[in-house]
Each structure stands twice: as C-alpha cells, then as structure tokens.
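Case study 2.
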Amino acid sequence: MRLLHRVIEEPRDCVYLPNERASLDVRLLVDVTPDELDAMLSRGWRRFGPAYFRPTCAACQECVTLRIRTDLFNATKSQRRAQKASARLRRVVRGPLVDRERLDLYHRWHAAREGERGWDESPMDAERYALDFAFPHPCAREVAYYDEDDHGRLVGLGLVDQTPHAFSAAYFFYDPEFKGSLGVSNIVDLVDHAKNKGLAHVYLGYRVLGCESLVYKNQYRPHELLVGRPATDETPDWRLSD
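Prediction:
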C-alpha cells in the first residue's frame, strides 16, 4: 500500500454521542491489497473510497468494532422473517456502479432519515458517490436488490468489501416506501453469503450503544468485539459476546 496523506483530526463534537468529543485518524491510501485490507479491518479500520479511518478519541471508547462469526451466527426469528419477506427480490452482487438510479435511491433514503431522525442534509452528486462508494478497489462490491414485481425497480443497495476472510458492510440504503425490513435482510443475506463462500466474518463497523443509528448492530448474535485499537504489529484481541 502507499500512504498519500495522514491527518489526526482536532477534537470536535461527536455526531454519535452529543456529550462527547470525537477525533479520527484518517489515512489516504492507494494500492491496498485484499490481504492488507483484511488486516486493517481486524484492527478496527473502516474504508470509504481511498480514505481509511479509525477513532482516536482520547476520553471515549464507545465506538467498538463488531464482527459476526459466520460459523456461530444464529439469526433470530424476526431476522429470518425479514429475510423471507425480501426473498422474492432479485439480489445482484457486482462491482459498484454510479448512475442516476442509485443517486435517486440514496437521496430518497437520506431525506427520510433527515425527517425521521433529524439527520443533517447530505448532498450527493455523481462525483462524490464515485469517490465514496465506487472508488476502484479490488475488494469493492455492491449488493443491489431489485423488485421484479415493480418493473425491476432498484429498492436497496449495499456497499461491501470482500477480503480473503470476510465481508465488510460499509453502507446500506433503500427505498423508504418499500414494505419490509430490507436492512435486516441484507445483513442476514451477507452472513449466509459469506458462510457459503467460506469467509469467517462479516464486519458491521462500529457499535455505539448510545446511538440510535448504530446500536442495532448489537442484535446480531453471537458476535465478536474488538478490544482497544491495536497497532499494526499487535495481535488483535477479539472477545466473543453471546
């Protein structure tokens, strides 16, 4: 891999926990191999486009990296119901695309979140989408859900990295008018897909118990939680949470 730039942010108001201060270690990297990304994921790093980041907050440890063990995962009845409800959709896994259909879906989904949860606006044009979600990378995949009962309309889209040992779920957005828990189904589908491909883990990013938008990850059990922020030369310590 090649490091183009690194910055450790000055502490700022946390977007997840209003009473906390947050800071990220951000690195712009290119030529990152699948094995290198796999090692970074195991140490709590996340990727959007060429940006790789990890919390470096001094006074807070609430952002805890969570991953599902595919050999142990046991979906709840409600999670399997959600998967069954969306089973009629056509699921396509391929390299990420940038087009008007995807931009429109993102805008509808984010606008609904702004109204329901008070999220800030998030302008998204084709250039930014290409950088954040479709930057060329050997691990980059998109998981698209199409409703063939509605003229093949795109109703859900997940951005995922596939490494030699894992899937890493980076982002998921969907049509707010779609009836069903498509986000839940997507995670269960990912675990099943990973297990079928012999992948050991599905990374869900950071679990933050005090944040409504991130606490849902705690519902996928059993899972493993990363202890601390291990350095490159340290062996990651993952603890099983039942």
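The chain is about 25% helix and 35% strand.
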